[in-house]
Amino acid sequence: MSDLLARKFYAVRKRIIGYVIRGLPVAFLFKRLYIIERISNLKLWFVAIILDRSNVRRPFTFNPKVVKNYVASEIISSHVGKLVMDVYNHWDEADYLFGRGLYWESLELRKNLMAEIYAMQGNHEPQTYPRLMSSSFTVAIGHLGCLLLHREAQQRGFLVNSKRTALLGKKIGNQEAIQLMKSEFDFTGVQSVDTTYFLPITNLVENLQIFRGVNDFYDRYELWEKIFQSTNGVRSTHLQETEEKVNYEIKCERKLSELGIKNPEKLAVFHIRNNGVYQETRNVSPKPFVAAAQYLQQKGYTVFQIGANEHNRISEFMNGIIDLNEKKYENVEVDLDFYLLYKAALFVGTTSGPSMFPQFFNIPSLITNLTSISRNALSGQKTLYIPKKIKRLTGDELSFGETLASRLSFGGEYTRNQFRIEELEIIDNSEKQILDGVDELLTRVINATSITETSLDSEVSSLQNMSKVVSFGKFANSCIGAL
Questions:
Q1: pLDDT at res. 335
Q2: How crowded is the C-beta side of 261, counted as CA atoms within 13 Å?
Q3: Alpha carbons within 13 A on the beta-carbon side of 79
């Protein structure tokens, strides 16, 4: 299938999915397709799964009555109503480009669409910005880290500096984190309306995908990298010494004492992403992390594991690790996860949201099994990355430079089947690679203000510039392989 035909097929399919998942309410209102309204949400969801199993979003929670209320309340104008489907169709085109690994082309289209949406709403002033933040920022602990980065971006002058209100949905990533961030953000519960994917009101509710800057729009990866490059390890945003923070830390320190932790200054925290779905390339097995965890224990660290999932437990393969997901810790009076993410001496993680916190607080971090390496490797001052290798089905590995330049390093989080379609497979980090990476982290980062530079780092940086990557993080020299 030619690229042109593929693009047309994708656009038609995405338009159907858009109607099914998020566009139907708009279709009811503006296209008068009322007969479709009688189809149950469950049937719509199954139709969406059949159409595209790898790209299904959860059912959109808007209904025609809500959308009509938005028009009646003048939250969106009738003019916006007439153009809204065109906006969605162009956004789908941007999704297509992103899925093809054409990151910068996708970003340009999205920025133009955001400018169009603001113009639709009559917001032409560069200082206009959303006062609310989508519930996507609060649904998971890793997403909460994006709130701190958002605040840092305000302090750095990239976004308009103001105290925003974050919406809380039915699911909250971490209650302790919410409480400790109240000095930086207001929070309000919105249970009945999900604004996450409703594009025409992004001038009112900031979503997690693209942000309104002072004079431009920023994709999240672009903004995060801009923040990390500009800070040089110095943060403007901190968890302020509020009464809630003091009380929380007292409880956590008391719990650590009860657990027999004799040296709270040497806490090593592991987080492994694995939801049990083999096709998801960010998922990894916990077993290859055993040698690194044991090595840190021998160095005098107390090793914790955070993350509530039955598929990621290192404790199944070794003794002595404190796995906070085990049943014996279910009734602990305080959730230690957030405390450990900003107080740890060392962090070992994977391509997952919680890795944002340690980097933000300048905790020495090793992020293993990195995917989409041309946009996920942020320039943390004390962070090293180990990428997943990509291997041709014929047997030879792509070099590091080939991986950086590959569209698979810029686009979405592809499934293993999508790699196979390209006659490739993605390889998880080995036990030796993770162990070597931890050893390198201890050598190059611990007790240093930033990562010591090597000649190999300079070569990697040149390759990153040639490949026009989004982010310029440093990679563990011991695990890069052939350049």
A1: 84
A2: 21
A3: 7
Q: Which residue has the tokens 């090595």?
A: 295
At residue 455, the 3 state secondary structure works out as helix
Claim to verify: residue 453 and residue 329 sit in the same structural domain:
yes
Cα(346)–Cα(270) distance, integer angstroms: 9
- pLDDT band of residue 209 (cuts 50, 70, 90) is confident
Inside any domain, residue 474? yes
Task: Reduce the DSSP state of residue 362 to 3 states and report it.
Answer: coil
Domain that holds residue 26: 1-125
The answer to whether 470 and 435 have CB atoms below 8 angstroms apart is no
Where residue 315 sits, what CATH number does that domain have? 3.40.50.2000
DSSP category for residue 329: G
d(CA 363, CA 349) in angstroms, rounded, equals: 12
Task: List pLDDT tens digits, range 376-419.
Answer: 999 988 999 999 999 999 989 999 999 999 988 998 778 899 89
Residue 470 CA, distance from chain mean position:
14
Between CA 433 and CA 369 the distance in angstroms is 10
Tell me the C-alpha distance between 199 and 172, whole Å.
23
Number of domains in the chain: 3
Same domain? 296 vs 431: yes
Same domain for 311 and 199: no
What is the pairing mode between strands 424-427 and 474-475? unpaired
Do both 134 and 184 map to the same domain? yes
Is residue 224 in a domain?
no
Average pLDDT over residues 205-217: 88
Q: Which residue has the tokens 């650590």?
A: 256
- In the numeric block, which tokens belong to residue 407? 């569209």
Whether the predicted pLDDT of 473 surpasses 60? yes
Task: List, for residues 52-70, the tens digit of each pLDDT value.
Answer: 333 333 323 333 444 455 5
pLDDT of residue 35 exceeding 90, the answer is no
273 with 283: CB under 8 angstroms?
Answer: yes
Q: What is the pLDDT of residues 266-318, one digit of tens each?
A: 999 999 998 888 889 999 999 999 999 999 999 999 999 998 777 888 989 99
One domain, residues 456 and 376: yes
Give the distance, in angstroms, between the CA of residue 121 and the centroid of all CA atoms in the same chain: 29
Amino acid in the structure at residue 56: V
